[in-house]
Specification:
The structure is a single chain. By secondary structure, this protein is an alpha/beta fold. The protein has one domain: 3-Layer(aba) Sandwich (Carbamate kinase). It is 37% helix and 19% strand. The strands form two sheets. The chain has a nine-stranded mixed beta sheet, sandwiched between helices. Strands 7-8 form a two-stranded antiparallel ribbon. Helix 1 packs parallel to helix 8. The chain is globular and about 50 Å long. It starts with a strand and ends with a strand.
Length: 234
């Protein structure tokens, strides 16, 4: 395996599958199997998952909910998704620890860098929920922060497209895919890979990001093995 310790960032929307909201059991099961495939190869895996399939903090402003309270609701949504993923992984014999940026005992342990690394080195997969534990920060920022904390080799951003394009490939059929980009190139081209806070954190800590299609079964193994799929930003 090219990468020994990874942080996998999944969007909450990806769990919807064919549904309009919530969690699709079939998609959840597929993801669990994909993740198990690299776990069985002794890759140390940390996961951060969003909550957009349940609630987005920014939605709160338009619906009359205070932004700070809305962001906390979004963090709770990430915890719900993380519990669901933990359950799916436990069913297929993946040792999993659930940590949280928000204190939420007894459901999840409070996030601690030392604890997270110890769990990884003891052959546990870890899911880090609850965002950063603070309002105004996205799960992109949380994933970058946690990846830096645990000294991950790379952030793998699983999406429904196979990389970064010059335009949205679902809307523009002439969009061209990038195989690789520097952080500066991605910034100058205003490519929406992660929010600026997360992107800056990765750049300053020399942490590469690979964007790939998580919905194609087998892709996660290919990425971790070093195959040239998706787009790498470094």
């Amino acid at each position: 395996m090219k990468y020994k310790r990874i942080l996998l960032k999944l969007s909450g929307e990806s769990l919807m599958g064919k549904n309009q909201y919530g969690i699709d059991p079939e998609r959840l099961s597929d993801y669990a199997k994909e993740i198990k495939s690299i776990y069985d190869k002794k890759v140390q895996v940390a996961i951060v998952i969003g909550g957009g399939n349940i609630f987005r903090g920014l939605q709160s402003v338009s619906s009359g909910i205070d932004r700070v309270q809305g962001d906390y609701m979004g963090m709770m949504a990430t915890i719900i998704n993380s519990i669901a993923l933990q359950s799916a992984l436990n069913k297929i014999d993946v040792k999993t620890k659930l940590l949280s940026g928000l204190p939420i005992d007894p459901i999840a342990e409070s996030m601690s860098r030392q604890k997270a690394i110890e769990y990884l080195e003891d052959n546990n997969l870890i899911i880090i929920s609850g965002g950063t534990g603070n309002p105004f920060f996205t799960t992109d920022t949380a994933s970058a922060l946690r990846a830096v904390e645990i000294q991950a080799d790379v952030i793998l951003k699983g999406t429904r497209v196979d990389g970064i394009y010059t335009a949205d490939p679902e809307k523009d059929k002439t969009a061209v895919k990038y195989d690789s980009l520097s952080f500066d190139e991605a910034y100058k081209k205003n490519l929406k890979i992660m929010d600026l806070t997360a992107f800056t954190l990765c750049k300053e800590n020399n942490l590469p990001i690979i964007v790939f299609n998580m919905n194609n079964m087998g892709n996660l193994m290919k990425v971790v093995s070093g195959e040239n799929i998706g787009t790498i930003v470094k």
